[in-house]
Amino acid sequence: MDTLFENQSWLPGAGFDVLRLRASVYKKIREFFRQRDVLEVDTPSLSRASVTDPNIQSFETFFQGCGAAPPQRMFLITSPEFHMKRLLAAGSGSIYQICHVFRQSELGTQHNPEFTMLEWYRVGMDYHMLMREVAELVSSLMPRQLDEPEYLTYKDAFQRYAGIDPLAVALDELQRQAQQAGFTLPAADKDNRDIYLDFLMSTVVQPCLGRQQLTFIYEYPASQCALARIAPHNSQVAERFELFLEGNELANGFHELTDARQQLQRFQLEQRWRELRGMPLAAIDHELIAALGAGLPDCSGVALGLDRLILLMSGKKVLSGVLAFPFNLT
Q1: Is 305 among the domain residues?
Q2: Which domain holds residue 86?
Q3: Using the 8-state DSSP alphabet, how is residue 236 labeled?
Q4: Alpha-carbon gap, residue 24 to 99, rounded angstroms
Q5: How many C-beta atoms lie closer than 10 Å to residue 154's C-beta?
Q6: Cα within 13 Å of Cα(76), Cβ side
Q7: Given CA atoms 121, 125, 126, 132 in this order, what sign does their dihedral have?
Q8: Residues near 161 by Cβ (< 8 Å), separated by ≥ 6?
Q9: 252 domain-assigned
Q10: For the domain that residue 36 is a member of, what is the CATH number?
Q11: Can you say whether the dihedral through the CA atoms of 41, 47, 49, 50 is positive or negative?
Q12: pLDDT above 60 for 237
């Protein structure tokens, strides 16, 4: 046989049984939202703005315009959130989207730089109501019966599995616990509580979550609020939740912040954090700020990683096993 045709790297990574499972999941998701009169939307994969969150890195590219205009800096989206919120502010009502998103430096058994996200926003729902809807959708997709969902506050989860109160523990004790768990203390951020909390969450708490049931962790520290509201009953926590199943994080949701000034201040603080650490500065989405200023309706939203969900449904061990063409085959 001609050696020119012996290379097998052109073959897909996932089998057609998994690809059929993925198609079935998409069909069921669309039917779930059709029954609830939630509109499917489609927004751009390219944006002039990027996320300021220092924990998320964007892919950057340039648009070569006509004439003598300089190349325009553009970013592949890490989430459709900003565009979807502009639709919400324009009066779309409840919406959802299945799309591809892109994140730098994320590659491993549970990560791929390009992955599929289901994101939806429910007007008039608080985040407790949205958690219940997430549980209903995910339970309906799973091929096996799960136990009743579990709902734990971030504080309760840490007290149960790490033996500390994450909202009150002294910094030196937090550092000691993280160091004991194998964390190398970062010199530049040795006084940043969230770095240690994130480490303990991922290595001590998270592996214990979602055993035979969906586990929702909510009321994250206010310092980890992202685009969520601060809880009116407790300024120490944000109205944010995450979903875990079999130790895997599947979803991240918020009771959405609607205050434009406060959101801009958060973006600016994240920019300063990036600047102090020598990270590339992100392009703040002023169109989103303008949309919030015009009036974002009271709503809650959630992003769910479909590839990870399909991984759990299929019984595969690594994410590349459920992707037609994972990063190493592109």
Answers
A1: yes
A2: 10-143+260-274+281-329
A3: T
A4: 16
A5: 23
A6: 15
A7: negative
A8: 204, 205, 208
A9: no
A10: 3.30.930.10
A11: positive
A12: yes
What pLDDT, on a 0 to 100 scale, did the predictor assign at position 181?
82
Asked if 221 and 237 touch (Cβ cutoff 8 Å), the reply is yes
In Å, how far from its chain's centre is CA 179?
A: 27
* Biggest CA-to-CA distance, the chain: 72
- Specify whether the backbone of 315 is left (phi greater than 0), alpha (psi in -120 to 50) or beta: left
Distances 129 to 89, 102, 124, 220 between C-alpha atoms, Å: 21, 29, 10, 17
Q: Which tokens is 89 given?
A: 């502010």
Ramachandran assignment for 102, one of left (phi > 0), alpha (psi -120 to 50 degrees), beta (any other): beta
pLDDT band with cut points at 50, 70 and 90 for residue 186: low
Quick one: angle between helices 306-314 and 16-35, nearest 10? 120
pLDDT 10s digits, 256-292: 999 999 999 999 999 998 888 888 888 899 999 999 9
Residue 133 carries which side chain, given as an amino acid letter? E
How far apart are alpha carbons 138 and 251 in whole angstroms?
Answer: 10
C-alpha to C-alpha distances, 216 to 233, 267, 311, nearest whole angstrom:
20, 27, 19
Indicate the helix (H) or strand (E) that contains 89.
helix 81-89
Domain contains 303: yes
How many domains does the structure of the chain reveal?
A: 1
What does the block give as tokens for 168? 């009150």
Is 51:79 a contact under the CB 8 Å cutoff? yes
pLDDT over 90 percentage in the chain:
75
79: left (phi over 0), alpha (psi -120 to 50) or beta: beta
Residue 109 lies in a domain: yes
